[in-house]
Specification:
The protein is 49% helix and 13% strand.
């Protein structure tokens, strides 16, 4: 209940008081009309409307109090309530400047013990754990447990990702980490394929949050069930939302990719100059996995670019694609990776990309889609 706003609780309380009063008045009116021998049709119509409103109120309360799911674009009140319920963030302060919030169950270390390493995961909602209730179920936290079991006290892992961010934000935060001399030995940028959209000149017009109109009245804007219905209908019918992912696919064949790669290369060089080992993980769009996965060429383009730039890169497409028949997304309306996806990703990241942290003889070479799986 504490995830609900005061205004909502006040309005719903007033409505719940009004409903029984209206029911009592309708019953009294029916008694009066019956004694007068007049037609009960209007009163019965009023009672039918009352029953409909009472039923809709019960549905609204279910979605406001019990229903607990996020959605891909976090536009619905239900999804925003999920964030208030399950997401707790703490501040990472930068000297002389405003810090950033991050979601983790450990504090960002301000110094390291001799011989200790600090791996920092950074990215957007896929790394943040959008739709994952408990941070312990995210891949970054699973990697921490795995590495600490293999080398107790030798490796620290922190996740400073945030939902809705992009490569520009990653670069800016990295600059702050370097400028503040915060201890980072390895920075792992988890690339979500839609990170490219901010490099696309048309991305502001194509972004779903810009295409969908805000609800036109309080009933659709300030409720949970009706607000959910409104945004579901918008997502199903508004061009640019319905075909959002096809727009992302096209971006990898044009100037947007050139701009993104230039930024990625600059970030790599900045980390290298600061003595930070920079690595990349590429997450696929899980709801599209299968033989006709439309982003296979984008994965290949990213991996090839990392190879040229000598950035250790792990492509999770060949890791997750064999599990396409499993449920890998949070829910039918939220395409973010669920706990099972995070588990599979953690195994690959710890066993391939970061294996050399424990086993120095292992070389974390770029991982690409096997030739047999290439289109």
């Amino acid at each position: 209940m504490f995830e609900l706003s005061f205004d909502y609780l006040l309005g719903m309380s007033a409505w719940l008081l009004l409903l029984p009063v209206a029911f009592w008045l309708l019953l009294k009116r029916r008694q009066t009309v019956r004694r007068q021998g007049r037609s009960l049709s209007l009163v019965n119509l009023g009672l039918s409307c009352w029953m409909l409103l009472a039923g809709l109120t019960a549905v609204e309360l279910y979605f406001a109090v019990i229903y607990d799911q996020s959605d891909s674009f976090n536009m619905t009140n239900v999804s925003q309530k999920w964030f208030r319920r399950w997401v707790q963030q703490k501040p990472l302060k930068f000297a002389g400047r405003e810090g950033i919030p991050y979601r983790d169950d450990v504090d960002f270390p301000m110094q390291l013990a001799p011989g200790q390493q600090h791996i920092v995961f950074i990215g957007d909602s896929f790394t943040f754990g959008h739709g994952v209730r408990h941070v312990a179920d995210r891949f970054s936290n699973r990697v921490r447990v795995d590495l600490q079991q293999q080398a107790p006290g030798k490796v620290l892992v922190t996740n400073i990702a945030d939902a809705g961010k992009d490569l520009y934000w990653v670069s800016e935060v990295t600059d702050r980490l370097i400028a503040n001399k915060l201890p980072v030995t390895t920075l792992v940028y988890v690339l979500c394929l839609n990170d490219i959209e901010t490099f696309d000149p048309d991305h502001r017009d194509q972004a779903p949050t810009n295409r969908v109109r805000r609800p036109p009245n309080f009933l659709l804007n300030d409720t949970y069930f009706f607000n959910l219905l409104y945004f579901r209908s918008q997502q199903a019918t508004v061009p640019g939302v319905r075909d959002y992912y096809s727009h992302v696919e096209k971006s990898y064949a044009g100037i947007a990719w050139q701009r993104m790669f230039a930024k990625l290369a600059t970030l790599h060089r900045d980390c290298r100059d600061a003595g930070i080992d920079f690595r990349v993980v590429v997450f696929p769009f899980l709801h599209n996995l299968g033989p006709n996965y439309p982003f296979r060429a984008a994965h290949e383009r990213i991996v090839e670019a990392c190879q040229r730039e000598q950035i250790p890169c792990l492509d999770l497409l060949p890791v997750l694609e064999p599990h396409a028949n499993e449920r890998l997304t949070v829910n039918i309306f939220d395409a973010h990776p669920n706990e099972r996806s995070h588990e599979l990703a953690a195994q690959a990241i710890a066993g391939q990309l970061l294996r050399d942290v424990i086993d120095p003889e292992h070389v974390p070479g770029p991982k690409s889609t096997p030739p047999s799986e290439a289109p």
